[in-house]
Design brief:
210 residues; alpha/beta; 6-stranded mixed beta sheet; 7 helices; 6 strands; globular
Length: 210
Amino acid sequence: MSRRLVLWRHGLTDWNVQGRLQGQSDVPLNEVGEQQARDAGARLAALAPARIVSSDLVRARETARALADLVGLEVETDERLREMNFGEREGLTMEETVARFPDQVATFMSDDDVRMPGAELYVEAAERFATGLDEIVAAMGEDDTTVVVAHGAVLRVGICSFLGFPRQTWRSFGGFNNCSWTVLEQLRGRWRIAEWNAGTLPEPVLSDDR
């Protein structure tokens, strides 16, 4: 066995349904999201996590709690795991965003390393998330599984930053569905992706590629 990180996105919210950008706005899970968290938590409990660390935003904490209640752990929080700050776009749909910021959106679509009004850059969000992961990993035991509960955008870019992928490759990785997860496993000292945007538990890889 090796060390394992399970990076889990929160369940569904009403703003997700409405297509509104949430960012660091503190939006709770809706009833569907609560059920998603219970269902996913029941599967993740089989991994016997040693620790659960969550973003301090309520939708992530509520998701984490569904697992914590099953495995008898406390939910620790870390604000570095928060979603990316989307600034003045938070609460807006894509249509509303384009209407309000047409020039900035046009530039952003071709180069997402451009600062939108009041927002973080993707690279800034990725760096703070990866720094949080570095500290979590440093505290892990030899065969520990740690579950980290966070948000779609910061998970995608933060994992890429943590693994050392070049900035220009980050768009090659798809987004996270509500209550899906990515599993990172450490093999011979290196972290690698075992599953991405998954809803199933990791299984041993029966292959020569070890």
